[in-house]
Amino acid sequence: MDGSFLDYLTPEMRVQVAVAPVVIAMLLRFLLGRTQFTRWSIAIGTMWFAVNVLLTPYTAGIRQDLMEVSSRFR
Questions:
Q1: Which is nearest to 25 in space by CA: 5, 6, 47, 10?
Q2: 18: which residues sit within 8 A by CB, 6+ positions away?
Q3: Count of helices and strands (H, E) across the chain
Q4: Model-level pTM greater than 0.85?
Q5: What separation in angstroms does the CA of 47 have from each of 38, 58, 59?
Q6: Which residue range is the domain that position 42 belongs to?
Q7: Cβ-proximal residues to 48 (8 Å cutoff; 6+ apart), any chain
Q8: pLDDT of residue 43
Q9: Cα(20)–Cα(66) distance, rounded to whole angstroms?
């Protein structure tokens, strides 16, 4: 299998993969209250979201799309 599993996901699924941990952490915060566990889960979920958003342009499919867009303006 070449590349990462993100290369095989649709854009909608990529957004869901990035957002799901944050949403789950917020639901836990709502249900369990303000605890150390919910603070850590929100922090980790937020970092997961940030990493996914920052690394998305470096997946193979997105790189190819970006190269095609830049060549259209030449």
A1: 47
A2: 48, 49, 52, 53
A3: 3, 0
A4: no
A5: 14, 17, 18
A6: 14-72
A7: 18, 21, 22
A8: 92
A9: 26
Residue 2 has pLDDT above 90, yes or no: no
Confirm whether 68 is domain-assigned.
Answer: yes
pLDDT digits (tens, 9 = 90+) for 34-64: 999 999 999 999 888 888 877 766 666 766 7
Residue 10: the pLDDT is: 74
Residue 9 domain flag: no
Total count of domains within the chain: 1
Tell which residue, 71, 70, 26, 67, has the closest CA to residue 45: 26
Angle at CA 54, nearest 5°, toward 40 and 45? 15
